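Worked example
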Amino acid sequence: MITSEQINFIIQSTGDAVCIISAKGDLIFANPAAERLFGITAAEGKKIWNAIPYIAGNDDIIQIFIDTVARKASSNEAVVDYVNNEGKVHNLHVRMTSYKEDMDVYLILITDLTELITVNKAFARYTSPDIADYVLTTAEGQKSGGVTREVTIMMSDLRGFTALGSILPAQELIVMLNHYFALVVAVIEKYNGTVIEFLGDGIFVAFGAPKDLPDHAARAVKCAIEMENVMEEVNAWNRENGYPDLEMGIGINSGKAVVGNIGSDKKMKYGCMGSTVNIAGRIESLTIGGQILITENTVRKIEEELMITSEDVILPKGSPTELKYYEIRGIGDLAQSLIPGDIHWLEDTDEEYSFYILEGKTVGEDVHEGRIIRRSDNSKFATIDTDTPLCPKQNLMLRKEDECIYAKVIRQEDKGYLICFTSLVQNISGA
């Protein structure tokens, strides 16, 4: 049986502040942790709220002491800030309980959460808030392993951003990228998307994990449209600060995926994997700047009206059947604010270029010849005449002397192939 001496030892040794006050607030007892926290001893005979500096930030902790005593409440608790005489801010969990046989005496237990909250905030900054909550507050969050869940995956990527690394200093590149991330991640959080990972300038987002979202597909599409719309603000800031405009492509797919903690006991990360993820990535790779492509899997899960402008099919790797996908520009009352209009062409030109066909991220070995015979007034589109058969959605790298220009094939036309430049467009528009 525990003795009074043992109880006293525990109270004196604990890192939590323990106080006893009278019904009038007079400090009757304070253990060493409480004396260090408030900078007073019980022998001074102060009321506990008078031990708190009357400065901005201390209103809540003073109020909980006064209110509990004034209302003669049997118990009360709250998490409050406390600013000590040195100006250091503490986050405290304060619990007050009256002695059941004597309402004139209150036991106060105070736990300093400052370090824990600081660590949790830092953790949440390095991962999604939903993942941080999952890891810190659920039993599953502490274990390795995953579950199969119905989700919608969104992949976004900036067109031509990698090539900017050869133009801008690394520090400026990071400044521009961080500003872009700050704006688009705010949109993702608005629609309860979970950022699984930043992939360079790309973002891998899951809707429906780790938290269930019955309308995950609709949320993903609405999020994508608002992300494209916020690019106006991104680019207004870029121009004001001397940076180039950015364009973003987004791919979305819905289906089953394995979600959960991946790794070892020493290092884990929350992950999401499976063919649903792979197809979302494949769809995103087909986009040009400002374009949102979603699969038929996603369309089937959305009850609201979609503004669909075109459709096409792909054959996913390892699948025996084709998958239809759609370009969308709106859902319900929400629509893209920047929609490319008709292409306005400048005078015809005749510029010879060698070009390579990209296979994924790899530049093919074969060199092809072509001529750019016209270009648009905004330097985004051009027509290339070549004897090499090209397919829509193929990625090209054009080379002329020391300049490299990346482009995507849009479609075949009477005079050649319509292409959309994805990087270093400024090099092709001048001379």
The first strand starts at residue 17 and ends at 22.
